[in-house]
Batch of 2 targets.
Target 1
Amino acid sequence: MDRKAPLVLTAAICGAEVTRDQSPAVPYTAIELAEESARCFAEGARVIHLHVRRPDGSPTQDRETFRAAILAIRSKVPEVIIQVSTGGAVGMTVDQRTEPLELDPEFCTLTTGTCNFGNEVFSNPFPVIEAIAARARKHAVRMEIEAFDAGFIDNALALHRKGLIPDPLHFDFVLGVPGAMIGTEDRLDFMRSTIPAAATWMVAGVGRYELPLAKAAIERGGHVRVGLEDNLFLSKGVLAKGSWELVRAAADLARESDRSLATPEEARRILSVPMRA
Ligand code: KMH
Ligand code: ZN
């Protein structure tokens, strides 16, 4: 990848696990998600990785809750790319996880392997991956491959060879999940050495790995995801005021490395996510 290509920043603003008890900045409602999306967009985020919550903060993949959130985000930030999660929360069924795909969103995640996830298991055996990919294809949703560990990439490439994951391939290396691959630079370099040269990639560092991996990805020509889903802290012991502050920190790293931030149009071209009519 071109080391000076414009940088696409994704903001993972909510997730399924983090709670208001841990950080008051975690958005739950459609309007909170939209306001946080607007703040992240203003700092340079071009993709919103979206989970939704019930009013009590518990995670859901309910289609209508996603619809309300997407409409609210669209009304505040028409240009931003909205990526719905098909991971949901640990323990959800394929039918639950794929509810947002029924809305014909422009972009979604696809996790291509199983790993420990804290003290739980994020379960993605091949029938689950293939079913989610089939529904994404049916709704013509662009897929981002989420690789929490090295074998997830091999699985994705096997599914790509079978025609189940379409070109062009785009990977998100999610590194630092307790129970999966850690977020060191050597792990990142190994992950990126295993993907096809034509593929695009980004990194989502979890916890303390978030900003160091953002810097490493920026220097290597990759793209970056930050946000409260992955990490609550701006620095050791200092809670981020919102995902927007982590986006700002990543954008600052890009400025220091002389990488421009992608415009909304550049982000859509780099990720192959055209604006839907
Ligand atoms: N909440 C994690 C178990 C995704 O969004 O696609 C899964 C996850 C991945 O967040
Ligand atoms: Zn997620």
Target 2
Amino acid sequence: MRVVILRSNRQAAQAVARLIALAVRRAPDLVLGLPTGRTSIPVYDALADWHRRRRVDFSRVTTFNLDEFAGLERDDPRSYRAFMQQHLFNRINVRASNVHIPNGAARNWRREVDAYEAALRRVGGLDVCFVGVGRNGHLGFNEPAAALEARTHLARLRPETRRANAHLFNGRWRRVPTYALSMGIGTILNARAVVLLATGPEKAGVIDRAITGPVTPRLPASLLQVHPNVVVVLDRDAARRLKV
Ligand code: GLP
């Protein structure tokens, strides 16, 4: 794993945006995996900036989001779809038909997850997957467990994850859906490159365990250790417990 430690949250986010922007410049038809979460917002701000200054063109890029809450309509303001529209898609020139987010409102979730995997296969898989990490080590909504699902699936969210998402639901964590559709750990690890961004002191513990601890489904982010092309970008706070 390549670990890059930068002074501030802002610098770390800008470094990730730069990696993505330069990858798009090199391969304009890049297939990108994208996360939600507060950590990703400054990255999306910086990418919007790259685009505004006409330094990168997203018109041929295809995106696949990692996850979506089950039971929310696509125009629900609390959905990850709405988050993505607000923070990124409305601000760059990606084509709506190239944007993929699991449909949380799908009645037949089995069909939805299969269709998601099929759409990804059709474009040849993810080139670059940008991910954040939950404080409990989750990637997307792959929660710590005795065993993980490889492919896109219906995931049950743990209480701590629902609490971490409570800000989207007026601070009421019990209103956060109990289920979500999430890419599987295999879907993420099949990406040609993975970029993990973690910032802030609340991620310091999980970052140390994910990078230097054993590879275990009890900490899904630790599985990134088996991937040949991972860049971990951290600010000082998130790196402060790192034992390497
Ligand atoms: C959410 C998302 C994850 C994200 C994580 C971290 O639950 N499903 O994909 O990485 O939380 O969020 P934050 O950046 O707000 O800490």
